[in-house]
Amino acid sequence: MGMQVTRRTVLGSSAILLFSMLLSSCSSSGDSNGSEADSGHKITVEGVSVNDDYSGYETIITATNTNYSRWTEVVVVKYTVGDEQREATLPIDLYTDGTESWVLKTETGDLTSFEIISEDASVEYLNGDVLDMWAAAHDEMLAEEAKYVTFGKYAQTDTTANDDPIQWKVLAEGDGRCLLVSRYVLDFQDYRELEKAESSDWYLSTLRTWLNSTFLNSAFTQEEQSQIIATTISSENGTSSDQVIILAPEQAWSLFPDDASRRARPTQYCESLQQFHVSDDGYIGWWLLDTEDSLYKPLVSPAGADENHPRTNESEGVRPAIWVNAGAIGR
Predict the structure, then answer these.
(1) Of the residues 102, 119, 145, which one is the last residue of a structural domain?
(2) DSSP 3-state of 306
(3) pLDDT, tens digit, 9 for 90 and up, residues 131-175
(4) Same domain assignment for residues 135 and 168
(5) Across-strand partners of 87?
(6) What is the three-class DSSP state of 55?
(7) Does this model's pTM top 0.85?
(8) Coil, strand, or helix at residue 136?
(9) CB 59, CB 45: distance < 8 Å
(10) Nearest-5° angle of CA 207, CA 231, CA 313?
(11) What is the total count of domains within the chain?
(12) Same domain, 179 and 287
């Protein structure tokens, strides 16, 4: 698999141009390389970070021309992932004060060498050795992945077959049980499915009914259902005992450290149901539980914030939540 390159070109105050391309796997590796520092041509490597969906890593490379003449060159990045040697090319065409940046994306694996080859530019690594930064990003990814467990199955690809393991984020644990919320938005549902919007609480919501019937029986075997601990919820119109719930606002704002961590992407199946709800960067909003009888309901926005409250009969994303016995997920 090659390295994905996203290029941004900035000339003075001009607009940002974005495009992506996949580069084929190629050869060799080595140490950092550069030419004379006074050439006015500079390449900086800002660091290695984990992708926001934790599928791999990103390295930002920036070329800057402070020379009074045009700079054209094809810079080569050689690197090795595991035993596979690869090569990426960065075409540079910059006038005075021109800047061009690339986001180099690679999948997970051990980076064993990294080298930038340029005949005209000096190369500077702003945050230290790339291999050390890669190792730190890998440790971050492992720590993040440890927060997720699998339990049950539900349609998540572009088919409706309920055979995809559900990934859950562990939000809290203690007294032999764990609170889980789905890693991804799994479905779209109205809070209360009616032709005309009416006020509702959690007790009267069709979302509660769907979660504890259709979803519960589709996602979990009888054995798995026996490991789910029911939650008693007192709403304005009645009290319910539910095996599957959604997070309450106080949980969403306290159990996630910030807006970024609250953001959620839809599964392929979910996105196929309501594509227009997905933000430009691939995130969608998801319902929160409300025990009050009201027409508008709380929602975590695609930005991970408390930005809007849709009507009860609007279709929004659903991240189911469950309390389970810790032993059922190996905790």
Answers:
(1) 145
(2) coil
(3) 999 899 888 888 888 889 999 999 998 766 778 999 999 999 999
(4) no
(5) 78
(6) coil
(7) no
(8) helix
(9) yes
(10) 15
(11) 2
(12) yes
